[in-house]
Amino acid sequence: QVQLQQSGPGLVEPSQTLSLTCAISGDSVSSKSAAWNWIRQSPSRGLEWLGRTYYRSKWYNDYAVSVKSRLTIKPDTSKNQFSLQLNSVTPEDTAVYYCARDGSPSWYFDLWGRGTLVTVSS
Amino acid sequence: EIVLTQSPATLSMSPGERATLSCRASQSVSIYLAWYQQKPGQAPRLLIYDASNRATGIPARFSGSGSGTDFTLTISSLEPEDFAVYYCLQRSNWRFGQGTRLEIK
After folding, report:
1. To probe the interface with B, which of A2, A48, A109, A111 has the most B CB atoms within 10 Å?
2. CA B63 to CA B16: how far, in whole Å?
3. Cis before residue B15, ω within 30 degrees of 0?
4. Terminal-residue alpha carbon distance, chain B
């Protein structure tokens, strides 16, 4: 049974870096049949896909235009997990952050973490 | 960029009734559209992918149809656990619709 376990702080100060980790069990971050995503949800922005990392003989990343200049998603093969780093946060980045897998057979987000509420405030 | 518009914003229905939810794309997405269900405090759950394929473990009362720009999610006979918010998602740039809240009448 594949599971995603999220971890990270729930409060980040403005202008600082938001960092979250998603640990994978039952699958591999290096799988060629999956990609590993971050998605957030807020009342003002709804559900918003942020980006993903995936391995197809080498590592690739895709990022949403809205956060591309501030976002880094990295795999960690030694710990079978992936991470999100969002720089220069503002209160607009307050949201519930989810990690999610897209992979075979659907190639949509078929498995989600439980979500982490991150508040940007001083 | 492709924008998804869902209608209605809220749908009030009774258990046992048939529910029809709509998702319209601003340009063609072929069949590359999915439907999700989200309950309070939970992550979204994949129901339908590629317009009409039920995801693993999804009951047969959920069905999807459409292609191009117009898509429909149908729940044939509402169960109490079906009252939730429903979102559509397109694969072109991973944009979600704004959601339809299905509430008990």
Report:
1. A109
2. 16
3. no
4. 36
Whether residue A106 and residue B95 make contact (CB cut-off 8 A), yes or no, is no
Specify the pLDDT at position B73: 98
* CA distance to partner chain B, nearest, from residue A18 (Å): 20
Distance CA A25, CA B72 (A): 34
For residue B85, the 8-state DSSP code is E
Residues of chain A neighbouring B91 (CB-CB closer than 8 A): 107-108
Q: Give me the DSSP letters along A46-70.
A: EEEEEEEEEESSSEEEEE-TTTTTT
Nearest in space to A8 (alpha carbons), one of A16, A91, A18: A18
Give 10-residue mean pLDDT values along chain B (105 residues).
96 98 98 98 98 97 98 98 98 95 97
Q: A46 CB near a chain B CB, below 8 Å?
A: yes
The residues with which B13 forms a beta bridge, in sequence order, are B104
Residue B53 confidence (pLDDT): 98
A52 φ/ψ sector (left φ>0, alpha ψ -120 to 50, else beta): beta
**What secondary structure letter does DSSP report for A83?**
E
Torsions phi, psi for B9 (to 5 deg): -70, -40
Name the 3-class secondary structure at B82.
helix
- Is residue A30 a contact partner of residue A38, using CB atoms and an 8 Å limit? no
